[in-house]
Known about the structure:
Layout: H1 14-25, E1 28-39, E2 45-56, E3 60-65, H2 71-79, E4 86-91, E5 94-95, E6 103-107, H3 118-129, H4 134-146, H5 162-175, E7 180-184, H6 192-208, E8 212-216, H7 220-226, E9 229-234, E10 239-245, H8 260-273
Parallel strand pairs: 3-8, 3-9, 6-7, 7-8
Antiparallel strand pairs: 1-2, 1-4, 4-5, 9-10
Helix pairs in contact: 3-4, 3-5, 4-5, 5-6, 7-8
The structure holds adenosine-5'-triphosphate (ATP).
Adenosine-5'-triphosphate (ATP) binds near residues 45, 67, 68 and 69.
Amino acid sequence: MNTIKLPDYRLQSADVKQRFDKLKQRPIELSVEGLGKVFRGKKDVESLRDINLEVHNREFLIVLGASGCGKSTLMRILAGFETPSSGVAKLQGNEIHGAGPDRGMVFQSYTLFPWLTAKQNVMFGLEMTVGKGAETESEALQWLSFVGLERFADSYPHQLSGGMKQRVAIARALANKPRILLMDEPFGALDAQSRAQMQSLLLQIWSKVDITIIFITHDLDEAVYLSDRILVLEPNPGRIAELIENPVARPRSLDQFLQPEFLAVKKRLEKLIHPRMDEEQAPVFKMTKKGDEVE
Length: 295
Ligand SMILES: Nc1ncnc2c1ncn2[C@@H]1O[C@H](COP(=O)(O)OP(=O)(O)OP(=O)(O)O)[C@@H](O)[C@H]1O
């Protein structure tokens, strides 16, 4: 069988190298130093070990890894919902202690208040930081129009599709003008078409707002399509396996999915996340009868 020879994902053209040199010269928005997390219990679980990372201003960082490698634990520490067992996480040089308006969050499960309209959901956060009033309402409407949902301002979450709910969640998170958007599998529950639309919309939003994004996904195409860099974690305990500088050019488009650079990064991710099971170790249960025409 003929297979296409892909370029080495580590070989950077002068353009790509320049792009990442520039990225790394930008101010550091978030830093993680020697971060570890052990959940104490009957049996201790070491969820993260010695994570070191610097995320730069306006970077789009994807976090990827097999189930249980500590992606959500890392995100919860950055959000301030968990405290690390060792090491430190800093936002603009200040140690993270608890949640704060400098971090916006969007999760996979729709977290809108079902008894509030789309507009009221966006206003909710604003009322806590800015206060109630006509200004708050007009600002909420601006954010809804920014994500293309002005017409649905008075709709309740149950009247919106999954993609629309996530657009409201993004508008609500951005309305508080955070420094960082933390997204934990935000499109994981969407059908393939809505997911693709949301990915493109997120890239458009990111190009217009001064925001750094940290985004967890299991989807390799999504990782390559969205990222500047991809942090790959490995499990037991959760450690950094590799930090990949994505060579695929920006602006991104769906045509790039079949480009050699795109496929090369995807192939590398596949290798890191699903190491080929040694055939001898692979469990084989024969469920067919003798004479069945199966391979
Ligand atoms: N509150 C907790 N108490 C005990 N163990 C926990 C807790 N939260 C997470 N863990 C354990 O820490 C490890 C990492 O979990 P985490 O949810 O961060 O992984 P993940 O990479 O996000 O997984 P998935 O992709 O399945 O969501 C797992 O072994 C998990 O069981």
